[in-house]
Amino acid sequence: MKNKKIKTPFxxxxxxxxxxxxxxxxxxxxxxxxxxxxxxxTEPGSEKFIGLKNFQNVILSSxxxxxxxxxxxxxxxxxxxxxxISLVIALILNKxxxxxxxxxxxxxxxxxxxPIVNGIMWKxxxxxxxxxxxxxxxxxxxxxxxxxxxxxxxxxxxVVSIVIIWRIVPFSSIVILAxxxxxxxxxxxxxxxxxxxRFQAFINxxxxxxxxxxxxxxxxxxxxxxxxxxxxxALSGYQFENQTLLVYNYSNTFSFLDFGxxxxxxxxxxxxxxxxxxxYVKNMTVERVY
Length: 290
Description:
Blueprint lengths: L1 H34 L1 E2 L9 E2 L3 H8 L1 H32 L6 H13 L2 H11 L6 H8 L13 H28 L4 H9 L4 H12 L1 H16 L3 H7 L8 H11 L3 H31 L1
Antiparallel strand pairs: 1-2
Helix pairs in contact: 1-13, 2-13, 3-7, 3-10, 4-7, 5-7, 5-11, 7-10, 10-13, 12-13
């Protein structure tokens, strides 16, 4: 009977293990095998083992450098603006009044929409000709001619960052809000009795106590920014100047059918994302221990 009780949990885990093996581990191992080969579907019979040559080509590729730079610009904008906006919205929603539930429901809407839908919606707003944004700026006299939001690289990366922030800020705000609502009011009452201002209370009480949730938000913002794909495709398609890492990977793998090179790009992206995630988790652990 005792052995049966010990075996039962492992038997119940078998379906989950099989799903993980065939949907995660097997594709990861297969992709790594492709990355070590010259493997183009446009050249049947040319498959051969070339070792780390694909990784070398990725690292030395100017096209990869361009997409990497685009991704890091988007990452920086999303992290800075996304964190600030998420914190501000969470602080607003933390003020309990009759309209708070309604505002919370509105905030969640962008998060519920698919990324491709968000991208198409914002494309109409930032359309290079007479999109909604250009119409507004022209009417209030800030510009004399329409701005090419999507055709200019710098403006395009800014627009992509805004679209990502629009989509991811709702979840980030809710995470911070949950942390804020767990802070006892007694902390604020005691510091106000000592003559502190609201800003001092925020710096000395609120900010230190919400650091764990800020760490979660930063990880979420980082992974979303690096893995942006649908929004870029919806806004500009596969334009070379505007490609981010995932778009560059998709173009090489499924447009040019170079599975060897594309697989190596996938592993480089996975490595970069893993390093950033590890650093965030490590800093969160150190902060909690301290």
